[in-house]
Design brief:
The protein is built from 8 helices and 8 strands. It has 261 residues and is an alpha/beta fold. The protein has a single domain, classed as Rossmann fold. Helix 4 links the parallel strand 4 and strand 5.
Length: 261
C-alpha cells in the first residue's frame, strides 16, 4: 500500500537507515536525509531497487540554512507537497567528564539533538496545520529519561527533546498532528560501535567484553536492535495517539504517557 512521504534525518547509516528501509517497505516515500549526500544516494538507490520510493537529501540539522534548503527540496521532489511525516533521528553523543565538558560541548549537542529537530518541526508545521494532519517521531534515548555519567551534555539534549515532544504534543492535540518519542537504551548501532572502541582503548577490555558491558547496562540485559527501533517508529507514524514515549530496553517495550491518558 502506498503511503505519504516521510523525511528521515540521520538516515544514511545505522538506526536511520534501518528506519528508512522499514518505512519504504511499508509503502512510504522516504526522503533519505543526512550530511553525507553520497551515502544518502546509495541508500535511496537501494530502496528504489527494492521497489520503494526514495529521494536523497543533503541535510545538516545543526545549520538552519541547510534545514530550509532541505525542506524546500523535499517539497519540490514531492510534487509541491511537504512531507506528511518527519522522523528526527540525527544525533551526536560525545563523552567527557564534567571537568572537560565545555560550553562548546553542550552547544554542539543542543544544536544537533534538540534545535535541529525543533527547527524541522517548526519548518513543516504550517503545512501540517493547513492540511490538518502531520506525524512526528523524535528518536531520543533512555538518556532522555535517566542520567548517565560522562555524557551530561548528551543527557541534557535528550531530556530537552523529550520535554519538547511532550509540550508540542499537548499544544497540537486537537490539530490532527501527532508528536511522539522513541527512547531506546543502548542500541547495536554504529554509534555504540564507537563507544565500544573508546571503552576498549581506555580500559583494555576486549571488544567482546566491552559489548557485553553495554548490553548489561540495559534493563533487559540485551542490546536493542536497530530493527526494533524502526518498528516502533513505524507504529507511531501509523497511529493516532500523541504524547507517547516508547522505551525500548532490549527485551521489553514500555509505553509511557507522561501527559496523561
Amino acid at each position: 500500500m502506498e503511503r505519504g512521504n516521510v523525511l528521515v534525518t540521520g538516515a544514511s547509516r545505522g538506526i536511520g537507515a534501518a528506519i528508512a528501509r522499514t518505512l519504504a517497505a511499508r509503502g512510504y516515500g522516504v526522503f533519505v536525509a543526512a550530511r553525507g549526500l553520497a551515502r544518502c544516494k546509495e541508500l535511496a538507490h537501494e530502496l528504489e531497487g527494492a521497489g520503494g520510493r526514495a529521494w536523497p537529501l543533503e541535510l545538516d540539522v545543526a545549520a538552519p540554512a541547510s534545514i530550509a534548503r532541505a525542506v524546500a527540496d523535499a517539497r519540490e521532489l514531492g510534487g509541491g507537497a511537504s512531507p506528511a511525516a518527519l522522523v528526527n533521528n540525527a544525533g551526536i553523543a560525545e563523552s567527557a567528564p564534567l571537568s572537560k565538558a565545555t560550553d562548546a560541548t553542550y552547544e554542539r549537542h543542543m544544536d544537533v539533538n534538540f534545535h535541529g529537530p525543533r527547527r524541522l518541526i517548526e519548518a513543516l508545521l504550517p503545512a501540517w496545520k493547513e492540511s490538518g494532519r502531520g506525524r512526528v517521531v523524535n528518536v531520543a534515548s533512555s538518556a532522555g529519561l535517566r542520567g548517565y555519567a560522562y555524557v551530561a551534555a548528551y543527557c541534557a539534549s535528550k531530556f530537552a527533546l523529550v520535554g519538547y515532544t511532550l509540550a508540542v504534543a499537548q499544544e497540537l492535540g486537537d490539530r490532527g498532528i501527532t508528536v511522539n518519542a522513541v527512547c531506546p537504551h543502548y542500541v547495536d548501532s554504529p554509534m555504540l560501535a564507537s563507544a565500544i572502541r573508546n571503552l576498549v582503548g581506555t580500559t583494555g577490555r576486549t571488544e567482546a567484553e566491552a559489548r557485553a558491558f553495554f548490553a548489561g547496562q540495559n534493563p533487559g540485559g540485551k542490546l536493542v536492535s536497530e530493527a526494533a527501533v524502526a518498528e516502533s517508529v513505524a507504529e507511531l507514524l501509523e497511529g493516532d495517539e500523541s504524547g507517547l514515549v516508547v522505551e525500548l530496553d532490549g527485551t521489553e517495550t514500555k509505553l509511557h504517557r507522561p501527559n496523561g491518558a
